[in-house]
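Sorry, explain these tokens?

___
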Amino acid sequence: MKKTVTTLFILLGLLLSGMQVAFANSNDPVGMVQALADQMIASLKAHQTTLKSNPALVYSLAYKIVIPHADLDEMSQRVLPAQTWNQASPSQRAQFKTAFTDLLVRTYASALADYTDQTIRFFPLRGNIAGQNAVTVRSQIVRSDGPAVAVSYRLHLAGSEWKLYDMSVEGVSLLQSFQEQFRQKLSQGGNMDQLLQDLKRHNTQRR
């Protein structure tokens, strides 16, 4: 599971860097995602020798470029059991969103530092998407050290902008991976305040 989540975050980085350029007015999700991946791969290759030694570079990239274009409200709500989210106070929800975002960024930064030579092949969307507010973009990660990996990205329209809210590798969902982790913590007698404390402590240890 850890390897799968790491792969997910590598792909998240490949997908989302450079979003302020490509996301603004695109009505072609596949072309948009492919342009972003191409930009990120070029950036990673340019900085490959310093990725591991300069994590601050990746943190900055994530917070300034990636995070504004992921639907964190949607993701934060979906990763928690409905009852937990519904019973949480506005303050608890805001704290969870902040802590969950930090978790995403730090996991993402750690995984991105392991980038080697992956490339991405995208496939056309299935059917006509006119009038739809959600799409799934399918792709394959091509690696030199193993077979291709099937990856899908789930995006929806938030206003007039396409935003990412989930992705899957070989059928394993990013959100479902976190859902299971949080569900286990809460099922062991934990509550929202304890979950927040655990997340904050975990994020602090990763600094």
About this structure: Confidence is low (pLDDT under 50) at residues 16-26.
